[in-house]
Amino acid sequence: RKEVEQDPGPFNVPEGATVAFNCTYSNSASQSFFWYRQDCRKEPKLLMSVYSSGNEDGRFTAQLNRASQYISLLIRDSKLSDSATYLCVVLHKDNFNKFYFGSGTKLNVKP
Amino acid sequence: NAGVTQTPKFQVLKTGQSMTLQCAQDMNHNSMYWYRQDPGMGLRLIYYSASEGTTDKGEVPNGYNVSRLNKREFSLRLESAAPSQTSVYFCATGLAGGPKFYEQYFGPGTRLTVT
Protein backbone atom coordinates (compact mmCIF):
# COMPACT_ATOMS: atom_id res chain seq x y z
CA ARG A 1 0.00 0.00 0.00
CA LYS A 2 1.33 3.45 -0.85
CA GLU A 3 2.25 5.73 2.03
CA VAL A 4 0.39 8.64 0.46
CA GLU A 5 -2.47 8.41 -2.03
CA GLN A 6 -3.92 11.15 -4.17
CA ASP A 7 -6.50 11.31 -6.91
CA PRO A 8 -4.38 12.00 -10.01
CA GLY A 9 -7.10 14.05 -11.69
CA PRO A 10 -6.96 16.04 -13.81
CA PHE A 11 -9.39 18.47 -12.26
CA ASN A 12 -10.58 20.83 -14.99
CA VAL A 13 -12.23 23.92 -13.54
CA PRO A 14 -13.15 27.39 -14.83
CA GLU A 15 -11.50 30.51 -13.51
CA GLY A 16 -13.10 31.66 -10.29
CA ALA A 17 -14.17 28.19 -9.24
CA THR A 18 -13.49 26.59 -5.88
CA VAL A 19 -11.74 23.24 -6.02
CA ALA A 20 -10.71 20.79 -3.31
CA PHE A 21 -8.19 17.97 -3.29
CA ASN A 22 -7.88 15.20 -0.76
CA CYS A 23 -4.94 13.07 0.15
CA THR A 24 -4.86 10.01 2.42
CA TYR A 25 -1.89 8.65 4.31
CA SER A 26 -1.42 5.15 5.66
CA ASN A 27 0.99 5.56 8.57
CA SER A 28 -0.61 6.78 11.78
CA ALA A 29 2.88 7.83 12.94
CA SER A 30 2.86 10.59 10.35
CA GLN A 31 3.40 13.84 12.15
CA SER A 32 3.94 16.64 9.68
CA PHE A 33 2.09 17.39 6.48
CA PHE A 34 2.67 19.65 3.53
CA TRP A 35 1.32 20.63 0.16
CA TYR A 36 3.84 21.24 -2.60
CA ARG A 37 3.14 22.65 -6.03
CA GLN A 38 4.91 21.41 -9.16
CA ASP A 39 4.62 23.15 -12.50
CA CYS A 40 5.11 21.13 -15.67
CA ARG A 41 8.73 20.00 -16.03
CA LYS A 42 9.79 22.04 -13.02
CA GLU A 43 10.87 21.26 -9.49
CA PRO A 44 8.40 21.02 -6.58
CA LYS A 45 8.00 24.06 -4.36
CA LEU A 46 6.42 24.30 -0.93
CA LEU A 47 2.91 25.72 -1.07
CA MET A 48 2.02 25.42 2.59
CA SER A 49 2.45 23.34 5.69
CA VAL A 50 -0.65 21.77 7.22
CA TYR A 51 -1.27 22.30 10.90
CA SER A 52 -3.58 20.34 13.17
CA SER A 53 -5.98 23.23 13.57
CA GLY A 54 -6.12 23.89 9.85
CA ASN A 55 -4.55 26.92 8.23
CA GLU A 56 -5.19 29.42 5.52
CA ASP A 57 -2.91 31.35 3.21
CA GLY A 58 -4.81 33.74 1.02
CA ARG A 59 -7.02 31.70 -1.31
CA PHE A 60 -5.59 28.41 -0.04
CA THR A 61 -6.90 26.48 2.96
CA ALA A 62 -5.39 23.26 4.28
CA GLN A 63 -7.10 20.89 6.70
CA LEU A 64 -5.90 17.83 8.55
CA ASN A 65 -8.11 15.01 9.82
CA ARG A 66 -5.94 12.69 11.91
CA ALA A 67 -8.76 10.32 12.81
CA SER A 68 -9.46 9.56 9.17
CA GLN A 69 -5.85 10.11 8.08
CA TYR A 70 -6.49 12.57 5.35
CA ILE A 71 -5.39 16.04 4.36
CA SER A 72 -7.25 18.44 2.14
CA LEU A 73 -6.40 21.51 0.12
CA LEU A 74 -9.08 24.00 -0.89
CA ILE A 75 -8.41 26.63 -3.53
CA ARG A 76 -10.92 29.46 -3.80
CA ASP A 77 -11.33 31.82 -6.75
CA SER A 78 -9.08 29.74 -8.99
CA LYS A 79 -6.66 31.59 -11.26
CA LEU A 80 -5.14 30.43 -14.53
CA SER A 81 -1.79 30.54 -12.72
CA ASP A 82 -3.00 27.89 -10.26
CA SER A 83 -2.74 25.28 -13.03
CA ALA A 84 -0.14 22.82 -11.76
CA THR A 85 0.23 19.49 -10.02
CA TYR A 86 -0.29 19.54 -6.26
CA LEU A 87 1.75 17.08 -4.22
CA CYS A 88 0.75 15.89 -0.78
CA VAL A 89 3.74 15.18 1.48
CA VAL A 90 3.97 13.55 4.89
CA LEU A 91 6.77 13.16 7.39
CA HIS A 92 6.89 10.45 10.05
CA LYS A 93 7.85 11.31 13.58
CA ASP A 94 10.52 8.57 13.65
CA ASN A 95 12.65 10.24 10.98
CA PHE A 96 12.43 13.89 10.08
CA ASN A 97 14.52 13.27 6.98
CA LYS A 98 12.22 10.81 5.24
CA PHE A 99 9.52 12.61 3.31
CA TYR A 100 6.81 10.63 1.54
CA PHE A 101 5.31 12.20 -1.54
CA GLY A 102 2.00 11.47 -3.16
CA SER A 103 1.97 11.14 -6.93
CA GLY A 104 0.13 14.43 -7.26
CA THR A 105 -3.20 15.84 -8.40
CA LYS A 106 -3.22 17.78 -11.64
CA LEU A 107 -5.28 20.97 -11.79
CA ASN A 108 -6.17 22.73 -15.03
CA VAL A 109 -7.85 26.11 -14.65
CA LYS A 110 -9.56 27.19 -17.87
CA PRO A 111 -10.49 30.73 -18.95
CA ASN B 1 22.51 33.20 -4.70
CA ALA B 2 21.82 30.19 -6.91
CA GLY B 3 19.98 28.03 -4.32
CA VAL B 4 20.29 24.41 -5.45
CA THR B 5 22.03 23.60 -8.72
CA GLN B 6 22.22 20.29 -10.54
CA THR B 7 24.34 19.11 -13.42
CA PRO B 8 23.76 17.90 -16.02
CA LYS B 9 20.21 18.94 -16.97
CA PHE B 10 19.83 16.10 -19.48
CA GLN B 11 21.72 12.86 -20.04
CA VAL B 12 21.34 9.80 -22.24
CA LEU B 13 23.24 6.68 -21.22
CA LYS B 14 23.55 3.23 -22.65
CA THR B 15 22.83 0.25 -20.41
CA GLY B 16 25.89 -0.54 -18.32
CA GLN B 17 27.45 2.91 -18.50
CA SER B 18 28.19 4.86 -15.34
CA MET B 19 27.73 8.49 -14.47
CA THR B 20 27.62 10.90 -11.56
CA LEU B 21 24.91 13.49 -11.01
CA GLN B 22 26.17 16.57 -9.22
CA CYS B 23 24.29 18.75 -6.76
CA ALA B 24 25.45 21.88 -4.99
CA GLN B 25 23.70 24.29 -2.62
CA ASP B 26 24.60 27.70 -1.30
CA MET B 27 21.85 27.83 1.33
CA ASN B 28 24.05 26.58 4.16
CA HIS B 29 21.59 23.74 4.88
CA ASN B 30 22.68 20.65 6.75
CA SER B 31 20.46 18.10 5.02
CA MET B 32 20.59 17.07 1.39
CA TYR B 33 18.51 14.54 -0.55
CA TRP B 34 18.29 12.71 -3.83
CA TYR B 35 14.88 11.78 -5.24
CA ARG B 36 13.67 10.20 -8.42
CA GLN B 37 10.32 11.02 -10.00
CA ASP B 38 8.53 8.62 -12.30
CA PRO B 39 5.09 9.02 -13.86
CA GLY B 40 2.35 7.94 -11.47
CA MET B 41 4.83 7.20 -8.67
CA GLY B 42 5.52 10.53 -7.08
CA LEU B 43 8.93 11.44 -5.77
CA ARG B 44 10.80 8.63 -4.06
CA LEU B 45 13.78 9.15 -1.79
CA ILE B 46 16.96 7.43 -2.97
CA TYR B 47 19.49 8.59 -0.38
CA TYR B 48 19.83 11.44 2.04
CA SER B 49 22.54 13.08 4.08
CA ALA B 50 21.47 14.61 7.38
CA SER B 51 24.81 16.35 7.81
CA GLU B 52 28.27 16.51 6.31
CA GLY B 53 29.94 13.13 6.62
CA THR B 54 26.78 11.05 6.94
CA THR B 55 24.60 9.33 4.35
CA ASP B 56 21.60 7.03 4.71
CA LYS B 57 19.42 4.96 2.45
CA GLY B 58 15.98 6.09 1.47
CA GLU B 59 13.14 4.17 -0.09
CA VAL B 60 14.84 3.08 -3.35
CA PRO B 61 18.65 2.98 -2.92
CA ASN B 62 19.49 -0.09 -5.02
CA GLY B 63 21.71 0.68 -7.99
CA TYR B 64 22.91 4.00 -6.59
CA ASN B 65 25.72 5.34 -4.45
CA VAL B 66 26.16 8.80 -2.95
CA SER B 67 28.93 11.01 -1.64
CA ARG B 68 28.54 14.00 0.62
CA LEU B 69 31.72 15.72 -0.43
CA ASN B 70 31.30 18.70 1.90
CA LYS B 71 28.43 20.74 3.27
CA ARG B 72 27.66 22.19 -0.15
CA GLU B 73 27.88 19.16 -2.43
CA PHE B 74 26.05 15.84 -2.62
CA SER B 75 26.58 13.58 -5.64
CA LEU B 76 24.65 10.56 -6.89
CA ARG B 77 26.42 7.83 -8.84
CA LEU B 78 24.98 5.18 -11.11
CA GLU B 79 27.65 2.51 -11.44
CA SER B 80 25.96 0.43 -14.15
CA ALA B 81 22.92 2.16 -15.56
CA ALA B 82 19.78 0.16 -16.33
CA PRO B 83 16.67 1.18 -18.32
CA SER B 84 14.69 1.06 -15.04
CA GLN B 85 16.75 4.05 -13.89
CA THR B 86 15.28 6.24 -16.61
CA SER B 87 13.72 9.01 -14.56
CA VAL B 88 13.90 12.63 -13.48
CA TYR B 89 16.30 13.07 -10.58
CA PHE B 90 15.90 15.90 -8.10
CA CYS B 91 18.34 17.04 -5.47
CA ALA B 92 16.93 18.88 -2.47
CA THR B 93 18.18 20.56 0.68
CA GLY B 94 16.54 21.32 4.00
CA LEU B 95 16.99 22.55 7.50
CA ALA B 96 16.64 20.10 10.36
CA GLY B 97 14.56 22.59 12.23
CA GLY B 98 11.88 20.28 13.50
CA PRO B 99 8.71 19.13 11.82
CA LYS B 100 6.71 22.33 11.86
CA PHE B 101 9.34 24.44 10.21
CA TYR B 102 10.75 21.99 7.75
CA GLU B 103 10.89 22.96 4.11
CA GLN B 104 12.74 21.33 1.25
CA TYR B 105 14.27 23.31 -1.58
CA PHE B 106 14.66 21.48 -4.86
CA GLY B 107 17.09 21.80 -7.70
CA PRO B 108 15.80 22.00 -11.30
CA GLY B 109 16.24 18.27 -11.92
CA THR B 110 18.23 16.00 -14.24
CA ARG B 111 16.35 14.11 -16.95
CA LEU B 112 18.11 10.79 -17.46
CA THR B 113 17.32 8.29 -20.18
CA VAL B 114 18.96 4.87 -20.22
CA THR B 115 18.67 2.99 -23.50
- Alpha plus pi helix count of chain B: 0
Report the end-to-end length of chain A measured between terminal Cα atoms: 38 Å
Mean pLDDT of chain B, to the nearest integer, reads 92
Helix/strand order of chain A, N-terminal first: EEEEEEEEEEE
User: Considering DSSP H and I runs of 4 or more, what fraction of the residues of chain A is helical?
Assistant: under 10%
Kindly estimate the percentage of residues of chain A that lie in beta strands according to DSSP.
over 45%
Largest interface: A-B, 23 and 27 residues
Write structural notes for this entry.
The complex is a heterodimer of chains A (111) and B (115). By secondary structure, chain A is mainly beta. Helix content of chain A is 0%, strand content 57%. Chain A has no helices and 11 strands. Chain A has strands spanning 4-6, 11-14, 19-25, 30-38, 44-50, 55-57, 60-65, 70-75, 84-92, 99-101, 105-110. In chain A, strands 2, 4, 5, 9, 10 and 11 form a 6-stranded mixed β-sheet that branches. A 5-stranded antiparallel β-sheet of chain A has the order 1-3-8-7-6, with no helix packed on it. Chain A is globular and about 45 Å long. In chain B, strands 2, 4, 5, 6, 9, 10 and 11 form a 7-stranded mixed β-sheet that branches. Chain B is globular. The model of chain B has no long low-confidence stretch (mean pLDDT 92). The chains are: A mainly beta (111), B mainly beta (115). Chains A and B meet through strand 4 and strand 5 of A and strand 4 and strand 5 of B.
